[in-house]
């Protein structure tokens, strides 16, 4: 596996860790943040962070993986 | 004629004409009809995918769940986000295979990768059986929204017939291009409707969503933590459900195939990065459901929460706007569902299963013919036997998710064999059928479809090692 893909996969695991496997620990109302119950605040934060994580993965793949044949620059 | 009626009917008509217009000057062959000639850039792909994914369920179901179930509804925010993360890694690879072999549909992918027409026919049949009840659900949703929004002036049956005949027309003429154009109207209208109501009602009634949540917690302290107002939808259920639906999301035949419409693998990758932003409107829909629970707590049907609160709060012309947005929101996904159910039947059941020598023109003609059959079938079910397909509907998502091991292993693992994928798939489907129709869902606290997916994956892996290698044909860069 190419280095860029490997790093990108590690980043891609983050939403799964935070939005699936962390759920038992965040299933609570207090402390409320920004007016939202804690569980909703937690979920929403990671929903909003995921595009940024994926964008980082995109940049990393671009940096470490050699461009494939016929791919536009 | 009241204003709401004019707005609803005008929108349905305008969108359909736009959809028909989208296909002018394009010579319709299978390539243009199903995948838009593989020319869609990032904006159109984003609108198309959002158009397919955010269905009437976003309007009625998500607010209804927030209203009647509470915290379990948050799973909707999660699974989409997981699905987009998966798609970042999966869809560009699927696109490359599609480009290399000129694929149009999901069963095409199985046929090419595993060199097995049997597998293709099986995947096509499972796909069609999952699509038809889903289509019927969109149809009933549309009828329901229009009838409520027009205050009964437009009966649900006539709304269904009118909207579906028009949808049928633009699918017939323009294929996926028609869907993409109508999706623009749909996405704009839905965003406006959801933003106005989702931000508006918590402020109008409580002066902000923070205060609204405080009021809700004071009244129903357990509504906003799992399992909310339900018995079974605890943390384990949500975890297994988001894994199932997050992985299964792109396994829907119509969503899978939209990957082929992109103009490059990179377009798909960039699309995955921006898709999660489309989850934010879902949050606003929840706000409407929660506010409705405080303002109108006695609704018998939770799915009415969104419309009932709009009706109570806003003038009737805005109700018409919401109804119109709801109607196009049903039409867009329906059009792709019809399109791919037809293509699956013509190309992957008829051609692959019975007549491999059929010409492409014949398959194209047959696909267009099936558009009428499928639409009529869905209408008949929605009007005369509204609950006949409930079991199939419950199984749809669980069913299509069983394609996941075959897709992923086919792309990334050279040792996987067609026999293993076939039996893994059959095992998964049988488990789903037994558990869901026997009312054993959830099973051991987990989503039954997830249990089936795990067994399916294990069977596929074990059988792959036990059977003679039949190196998949479509592996990208086998050297890696």
Keyword list:
heterodimer; A: 73 residues; mainly alpha; 68% helix; B: 480 residues; Sodium/glucose cotransporter; 21 helices; disordered C terminus
Please tell me about this protein's structure.
By secondary structure, chain A is an all-alpha fold. Chain A has helices at 3-21, 23-26, 38-64. The longest helix of chain A is centred in the last third of the chain and has 27 residues, at 38-64. Chain A has one domain. Chain B has 480 residues and is mainly α. Chain B has a single domain (3-387), classed as Sodium/glucose cotransporter. Chain B contains 21 helices and no strands. The radius of gyration of chain B is 22 Å and the shape is globular. The A-B interface holds A 1-2, 8-9, 12, 15-16, 19-21, 23-24, 27-29, 32, 34-37, 39-40, 43-44, 46-48, 50-51, 53-55, 57-58, 61, 68, 71-72 and B 71, 74, 77-78, 81-82, 84-85, 88-89, 208-211, 213, 217, 221, 224-226, 235, 238-239, 242-243, 264-266, 269-270, 272-277, 279-280, 283, 286, 480.
Short description:
The complex is a heterodimer of chains A (73) and B (480). By secondary structure, chain A is mainly alpha-helical.
Which radius of gyration of chain B do the C-alpha atoms yield?
22 Å
Radius of gyration of chain A (Å): 16 Å
Instruction: Give the end-to-end Cα distance of chain A, rounded to a whole number of Å.
Output: 22 Å
Mean pLDDT of chain A: 86
Number of strands of chain A: 0
Oligomeric state of the chains? heterodimer
Mean pLDDT of chain B: 86
The biggest beta sheet of chain B reads:
none
Largest beta-sheet details of chain A: none
Percent of residues of chain B in beta strands? under 5%
Write down the secondary-structure element order of chain B: HHHHHHHHHHHHHHHHHHHHH
Helix count from the secondary structure assignment of chain B? 21
| Total count of domains of chain B | 1
**Helix share of residues of chain B?**
over 70%
Q: Which shape of chain B, going by the Cα principal axes?
A: globular
Low-confidence stretches of chain B are: 476-480
